Amino acid sequence: MPALPLSVIQISDLHADPANPADRQRCDRVREAIAAIGPDLIINTGDVSSDGMLQPEMFDGLKAWQSEMGVPVYTVPGNHDVGNSLGEEKPVVCDAFIDRYLQTFDDRFSVNHQGWRFIGINSMLLGSGLDRETDQLEWFIAELDLAQAAGELVSVWMHMPLFLQNPDEVVTGGSAYWIPDPPVRDKWIAELDRACVRLVGSGHCHWYASTRAMDVDWVWAPSLQGLVVDDYLFPPGGKISGLVHHRLGEDAISHEVIPVEMPEQLIRLNYPEQAEEQAG
Fold first, then answer.
1. Is the pTM above the cut of 0.85?
2. Which CATH homologous superfamily contains domain 6-279?
């Protein structure tokens, strides 16, 4: 069991192209903000690249940037890295995109730090129908079983959150873009309903949120791209660009959002009045 709280930085939705000077400057600001904190490790919850599945040469530069952090960095892919699991958005995740990503990054991980088991998954497989989806779920269950048997505390990391407001919700319309379909979500929720699971961290939504459900803290990291998305079903108060500093202890966990200053663009989505205006 951990003797001292672990200092963990979560970054997400960088959407960076190493060939773009503005993106390199933004990455430098992020690295400086992380260095000022001095964490034990870093978790990147996806969309590290600007459409790297179409331009995989981006990945090597982004891996090199992460290697400059001076502490372990664990990364899972987002839809802009390997494609989207929802057929409504192209390009759709496929084996070829994942294989390109795997030439540089792993798309899942399971590591122990001071009694905490960190498990990262490729959430873009959820609902994809690929053989990799079944394989990943079986691997995930086995890793949870091992952690539980060893008395480890568990944090789980993914790009796409499993729900917006609560684990039993039914979301329709445009807001359903952000999460897996309920039958897929329910399989993962059932496996996460264990006493050893304490934290689930995700990104994707370009919005900060923190929810308590099933005795688990569910934390969305905001985007580091400068694009803030406000969907009407998102929990309130998440308009920020920055990273999340988690403190993981044996008896308690906590987190705070660390702003990273950058030009911001705000997009409001799926509000009922927008639908009325379009209908009118």
1. yes
2. Metallo-dependent phosphatases (3.60.21.10)
